[in-house]
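TA notes, week 10

Several of you asked for a full example with nothing omitted. So below is the full record: structure tokens for the whole chain, then the designed sequence directly under it. When grading your own attempts, check the secondary structure regions first.
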């Protein structure tokens, strides 16, 4: 049985393959991958390696979960 990646690991460095549309809009780019979980966050995130919403470990990608300690994380 798979377990979810630890979302409290430190340091807070998102995976270099994590992407969101906000990264490509200059006025929104800063802080696009901030780790703060926001209940109103409607952003779509994808893994640049899998080209989808799931990482290689079959868990959803998000700044809160794409952190060191996840098997597929790369800095």
């Amino acid at each position: 049985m798979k377990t979810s990646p630890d979302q409290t690991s430190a340091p807070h460095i998102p995976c270099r393959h994590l992407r969101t549309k906000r990264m490509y809009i200059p006025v929104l780019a800063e802080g696009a991958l901030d780790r703060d979980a926001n209940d109103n966050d409607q952003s779509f995130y994808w893994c640049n390696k899998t080209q989808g919403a799931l990482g290689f470990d079959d868990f959803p990608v998000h700044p809160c979960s794409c952190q060191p300690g996840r098997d597929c994380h790369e800095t």
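The beta strands are 18-20, 45-47. Use that as a sanity check on your answer.
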